[in-house]
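Narrative of activities, Objective 1.

The group set out to show that a structural description can be obtained from nothing but a protein's sequence at a throughput compatible with the screening campaign. Below is one input-output pair from the validation batch, recorded exactly as produced.
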Amino acid sequence: MGRRGGLVYLSLGSLGSADVDLMQRLVDVLAKTPHRYIVSKGPQHELITLADNMVGAEFLPQPAILPQVDLVITHGGNNTVTECWYFGKPMVVLPLFWDQYDNAQRVDELGLGVRLSTYAFQDEELTGAIDRLLANEWLTSELSRVSARLRSEPGTVRAADLIERLARTGEPVTKR
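Output recorded for this entry:
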């Protein structure tokens, strides 16, 4: 992977990555860019052929990968979107179903990424979105600010504290 450019993580979740035609199309389009890719290939991993600028496996530890990458191409599931914001990563969102459409729209409206039509995007739309997001200094700064805010008040720690208090004292949980 001796190319320059950004390091991008591609994951469409377990269900999305099972769409071999979509995954292979993405791989083929991304192969023509100067960027490097980590690809979560999913349950049909043996049917997806990666390009020279890619590494991947059937399943990958997403929370360990996200801090290392510059951008994420995702289906826009709740976990991935919140993890991207937590780690301050811009997204290209290709929604497939359910909450993903709303998440993709919100990411796009907030300017924290780009929503594309999952099956009807033009190659240049995808590659152009990646290049624009990677070069956007305002976005890098804004996502760093969002990440810092989320890290300063971890919801999981607050939830655990409230559960412990309830178990210890029986005191009801109320708003701050």
